[in-house]
Sequence to fold (311 residues):
Amino acid sequence: MKDSFGREISYLRVSVTQRCNLNCVYCGKTDCDKKENELEADTIAAIASAFVRCGIRKIRLTGGEPLVREDVSEIVGKLRALSQVQTLALTTNGVYLKRFAAELRRAGLDSVNVSLDSTDGSTYHKLTGADVLHRVLEGVEEARRAGLSPIKINAVLMRGVNDDGARELVELAKETPVDVRFIELMPFSDAGEDDARVVTNAELLQRFPFLEPLGETDGTAQMYTGTGFRGRVGFISPVSRRFCASCNRMRLLSDGKVKPCLGDDTVYDLLPLVGDEARLTQEIRRIILQKPAGHRFGEIRPAHGLNRTGG
Ligand code: SAM
Fold:
């Protein structure tokens, strides 16, 4: 369905947990070990089903880290059973992907985005607090073997922390058939609010003049490629080049609250309505119509960190 600004709302991002197995610098997590208020697989499916009745056609599982949930494949299976869902995707840090990839594929997952902010082992360790780069790379390989497609790599750069590894990330798209997408640091947490840390995508494009625009977008990413590249390079610029006018997303948090906009603090609690399909659907329609015109980054620091909303 369309929201009150005429945007077709078709994409739901579901945070299945706020727990995470990493401790990334940009996330600034505070409450990531708590299982508190995590929705059961059946509840997630009931809420998602109501969203589908309102026009959602793509669902992405995120977190926290979705693969810390032992029942993540069960959740995928229940969402796959919603016949109108055309695309079922997952965003992960990839550390447990080797173990889960084949099981997730069998359960009906289509594609996966892997967050990988550095291809250098010691920088990755510094960024995430864990010396596990090799496990992420093995996970990506296993995802490919399992038939998950497409596989996209998401990278967030911070000046003076990992931006010196940007070239290696671009090289990844040259050497392998994956899309590497640079996501600009957003003003969540202390790290994200430090403007000096932000590396804009315009700056990156100046660093890599050999990248040529493809004149196409992939979701919110502007896509580029280079001579001899097997994959593509994408640039997602939520702050410097906001895309609110074409935002098609809603977000379900791990405790059953709906957040219509990543950069706005308004949330709505759906849990009291679970079990009453008609009222749940009616409430979701009402919430979609309340989706704000645009984010408020710059005015507010969002109350829910990205560890809760899942980016
Ligand atoms: N654990 C999963 C993962 O690692 O992809 C999903 C959750 S993680 C919080 C979601 C995404 O948010 C990651 O791609 C991460 O790079 C990104 N992220 C975290 N903090 C950010 C910030 N301040 N600005 C931009 N992206 C951020």
